[in-house]
Design brief:
The complex is a heterodimer. Chain A is 0% helix and 54% strand. Chain A is built from no helices and eleven strands. Chain B is an all-beta fold. In chain B, strands 2, 4, 5, 6, 9, 10 and 11 form a seven-stranded mixed β-sheet that branches. Chain B has a four-stranded antiparallel β-sheet with strand order 1-3-8-7, with no helix packed on it. Chain B is globular, with a radius of gyration of 13 Å. Chain B starts with a strand and ends with a strand. Classes of the chains: A mainly beta, B mainly beta. At the A-B interface, strand 4, strand 5 and strand 10 of A face strand 5 and strand 10 of B.
Chain lengths: 112, 112
């Protein structure tokens, strides 16, 4: 039973446009959410996070939105750049349990 | 300026032959994690250390063991590798379990 789902294995967007990556979760105990980016031959790197007490967190071109009632979060990248091409993992955590549960990842391709 | 280092990057072992993967960190973080990631799947947490305290995931096979002799190093031992253990193994660290994780580049294990 996968508790964190990224239903789109891949996404392709044009440079300068918005990229929207989606993530759904099933465990209502999750209270903290993170996005990681992974380039080939490298480990994932932390990108942005959001606590369940917020519905939006913004950091430069990256914004994460959280809809708790729908158990859904999304990562918006605007404007998208070719260097953003990578695999994006959504992760969710129950603070009491400590560990993070990851989704399968979405491969983003930004075309010049 | 590598912060989480994994050696080797590629490891080939024979079916049933014990193998050890290593991870070191220069971040002085309290927590070290080992994940198994198979192709196009989510990283799956095997276990983690908080300082010297070992925390095993309930579904981690007994075939997988870990050692953390000091703050900087953590090892993953696979006692009798099977073909199904071929995967990417990711090491990660965090200051504590509530902080974002820093990943190494991974070790790709092949079992022949």
């Amino acid at each position: 039973d996968q508790q964190v789902k990224q239903n789109s294995p891949s996404l392709s967007v044009q440079e300068g446009r918005i990229s929207i990556l989606n993530c759904d979760y099933t465990n209502s105990m999750f209270d903290y959410f993170l996005w990681y980016k992974k380039y080939p031959a490298e480990g994932p790197t932390f990108l942005i996070s959001i606590s369940s007490i917020k519905d939006k967190n913004e950091d430069g071109r990256f914004t994460v939105f959280l809809n708790k009632s729908a158990k859904h979060l999304s990562l918006h990248i605007v404007p998208s750049q070719p260097g953003d091409s990578a695999v994006y993992f959504c992760a969710a955590r129950n603070t009491n349990a400590g560990k993070s549960t990851f989704g399968d990842g979405t491969t983003l391709t930004v075309k010049p | 300026d590598a912060m989480v280092i994994q050696n080797p990057r590629y490891q080939v072992t024979q079916f049933g032959k014990p193998v050890t993967l290593s991870c070191s960190q220069t971040l002085n973080h309290n927590v070290m994690y080992w994940y198994q990631q198979k192709s196009s799947q989510a990283p799956k947490l095997l276990f983690h250390y908080y300082d010297k305290d070992f925390n095993n995931e309930a579904d981690t096979p007994d075939n997988f063991q870990s050692r953390r002799p000091n703050t900087s190093f953590c090892f993953l031992d696979i006692r009798s590798p099977g073909l199904g253990d071929a995967a990417m193994y990711l090491c990660a660290t965090s200051r504590d379990t509530l902080n974002e994780q820093y990943f190494g580049p991974g070790t790709r294990l092949t079992v022949t």
